[in-house]
Design goal:
- With 412 residues, the chain is α/β, with parallel strands linked by helices.
- It contains 16 helices and 15 strands.
- Strands 4-10-9-8-7-5-6 form a seven-stranded mixed β-sheet, sandwiched between helices. A four-stranded antiparallel β-sheet has the order 11-12-15-14.
- α8 links the parallel β7 and β8.
- α7 packs parallel to α8 and α12 runs parallel beside α15.
- The structure holds D-serine (DSN).
Length: 412
């Protein structure tokens, strides 16, 4: 960053510190990942200089001959990889992508049905403080007492409330989502089905989680989680009619000019995700999560649903006499970055809930394997069980640093 350093040493210094932080800590936040240097190069490219309101071949600005090619490639790669007929790559991120789907398919006041945030859903799936719960009549489903989606209860709620759109997908659910069953429920009431696969998109294209493509009317995904690209989003659907509505909802409905540097980086990440090595990566994410789940269970930790099928686990810390905030702080102290999270039916507040959300996408990108999960689980257990013991904390810090040095986020 020699140029940046010369022009703005303060920002250069902070970015350099953030780089070092990422190198020397392990992110167990399930929605984070480490984008490749190729993705970062595209993100820092001159594509950022161009205005391109509109779509390829139909722009409101001249000079878009090259940007058109970039965006068309991103669109084609998304369609091929996910097996959908239409793709829009312009949404600035996941929430605007979902907002565009609402704008395209619904009228204010229409009923929508999504997973409640405290049960593992997302803000934009109808939570009361979000646009989705304010502008629309949102009804929310949850999980059963063990933490599993209760499809019979969801079907009954749909029959009772007759939503115009049902949203499936989650931010803190560790089990396979039965998209076929959601389709049947949507069909029983004539609802659209939106599958928000932001968390699991990389697992879907990697072949380790079933795809919603045969069942959903619309699929949204962010591109920076398991898909390992830049911060951005893709909206996909089956028909030209829906595609036209969604394109219009993004532009001019919600946004102005697309972020072309992001579009280029999305195209790069889709190219990376189409390689056989990405399938190996996706498989390892799940193997690592399952290994970590069984090791933590062996250390006496209680997991919501008892385990995982995907990239994340939700730890209920109640039996350890710890809160989510205390656990997050203690792990942070030794260089393990995880995040506090509500557990289903949590009696505590979202600011200091009973759970901890742990994910393996980022550490798997670094190369940690199932064997390393034993070490990691041991470190997590020793830190959470001995928060006040400075010598145990010092040892854990050193062990985390050893793992970081063995598996750098970016090899120098
Ligand atoms: N904030 C994301 C997550 O951490 O799961 C969801 O958008």
């Amino acid at each position: 960053m020699s140029l940046l350093n010369a022009i703005d040493p303060v920002i250069a210094g902070l970015l350099s510190k953030e780089y070092e932080r990422q190198q020397h800590t392990l992110s167990l936040i399930p929605s984070e990942n480490i984008a490749s240097e190729a993705v970062l190069e595209a993100l820092g490219s001159v594509a950022s200089n161009k205005y391109s309101e509109g779509y390829a071949g139909k722009r409101y600005y001249g000079g878009n001959e090259i940007i058109d090619q970039i965006e068309s490639l991103a669109v084609e790669r998304a369609k091929t990889l996910f097996g959908m007929e239409h793709a829009n790559v312009q949404a600035y991120s996941g929430s605007p992508a979902n907002q565009a789907v609402y704008l395209a398919l619904l009228q204010p006041g229409d009923t929508v049905m999504g997973m409640a945030l405290p049960a593992g859903g997302h803000l934009t799936h109808g939570w009361k403080v979000n646009f989705s719960g304010k502008i629309y009549k949102a009804v929310q489903y949850g999980v059963d007492e063990k933490g599993f989606l209760d499809y019979d209860a969801i079907a009954s709620l749909a029959l009772q409330e007759k939503p115009k759109m049902i949203i499936c997908g989650a931010t803190a659910y560790s089990r396979v989502i039965d998209f076929k069953r959601f389709r049947e429920i949507a069909d029983s009431v004539g609802a659209y089905l939106l599958a928000d696969i932001s968390h699991i998109a990389g697992l879907v294209v990697g072949g380790v989680h079933p795809s919603p493509a045969p069942y959903a009317d619309v699929i949204t995904t962010t591109t920076h989680k398991t898909l390992r690209g830049p911060r951005g989003a893709i909206i996909m659907c089956r028909t030209t009619e829906l595609g036209t509505k969604i394109d219009k909802a993004i532009f001019p409905g919600l946004q102005g000019g697309p972020h072309n540097q992001t579009t280029a980086a999305i195209a790069v990440c889709l190219e990376e995700a189409s390689q056989p090595s990405f399938q190996t990566y996706a498989k390892q994410i799940v193997e690592n999560a399952q290994a970590l789940a069984s090791e933590l269970t062996a250390h006496g930790f209680s997991l919501v649903t008892g385990g995982t099928d995907n990239h994340l686990l939700l730890v209920d810390l109640t039996n350890k006499g710890l809160t989510g905030q205390q656990a997050e702080d203690a792990l942070n102290e030794v260089g393990i970055i995880a995040n506090k999270n509500m557990i289903p039916g949590d009696p505590r507040s979202p600011f200091d809930p009973s759970g901890l959300r742990i994910g393996t996408p980022s550490i798997t990108t670094r190369g940690l394997n199932s064997e390393d999960m034993k070490t990691l689980a041991k470190i997590i257990a020793s830190v959470l069980e001995n928060r006040e013991d400075s010598s145990i904390i010092a040892t854990a810090k050193k062990q985390v640093l050893d793992l970081c040095n063995r598996y750098p986020a970016y090899p120098r």
